[in-house]
Amino acid sequence: MRWWHIICNFDHKINTMIKFTLISSFLLIMACNSTKEITTAKASENMIQEKEMLAQGFTKGTIFHSKEEGDCEYTIKLEDGRYFESTDLKDEFKKDAMAVWFTFRPLRRMNTCLKANPVGINEMKKG
Predict the structure, then answer these.
(1) pLDDT, tens digit, for every residue of 26-81?
(2) What is the maximum span of the chain, computed from C-alpha positions, in angstroms?
(3) What b/e string do you get for 10-35 counting C-beta neighbours within 10 Å, with b at 16 or more?
(4) Are 123 and 93 contacting, i.e. CB atoms less than 8 angstroms apart?
(5) Which uninterrupted H or E stretch holds 124?
(6) CA 32 to CA 22: how far, in whole Å?
(7) Whole-angstrom Cα distance, residue 30 to residue 74?
C-alpha cells in the first residue's frame, strides 16, 4: 500500500510540472506575439508619418557633427549621401545623429566646407 501512494504522488507531481510548463510556454508565446504586433504597428505609423512629411515638402536628414579642421561643425546628411550646410541651424538641433525633417532653399554663396552645399532652413522638425 505504501508503494502505491508513492507512485500516485509522483505521478501527480509530474502532471503538475507538465501543466505548469504548458501554461508558461503559452504565456511566453502570447507575450512575444504581442511585441511583434506593437512593432508592426509602430513601423506602419512611421511609414504614414514619412509619407505625410514628404507630401508636405519636407526632406529627411540626420544631423552630423564634425570636429575635423576645415570641416563644417554641423551638417545635415540626406539619405542619398549628400550633405547640406546650414548657417541658421538652431541650437536645439545641434545634436549629432539626430533625425530631422526640414524644408530648405539653396543659397548662392561659397561653400565653407568641401562636402556640403549651403542651404537656408525654412522649417525643421525632430524626426
Answers:
(1) 667 766 655 555 567 677 777 888 888 889 999 999 999 988 887 889 999 999 99
(2) 100
(3) eeeeeeeeeeeeeeeeeeeeeeeeee
(4) no
(5) strand 116-126
(6) 16
(7) 45
- DSSP class per residue in 2-61: HHHHHHHHHHHHHHHHHHHHHHHHHHHHHHHHHHHHHHHHHHHHHHHHHHHHHHTT-EEE
CA–CA gap between residue 23 and residue 26 (Å, rounded): 5
More confident residue, 2 or 68: 68
Asked if 75 contacts 83 with a C-beta cutoff of 8 angstroms, the reply is yes
How sure is the predictor about 3, in pLDDT bands with cuts at 50, 70 and 90? low
Cell 548662392 belongs to residue: 108
Alpha carbons 71 and 65: distance in angstroms, whole number: 10
**For 105, which DSSP code?**
E
Tell the burial category of 82 from Cβ atoms under 10 Å away from its Cβ (0-12, 13-18, 19+).
middle
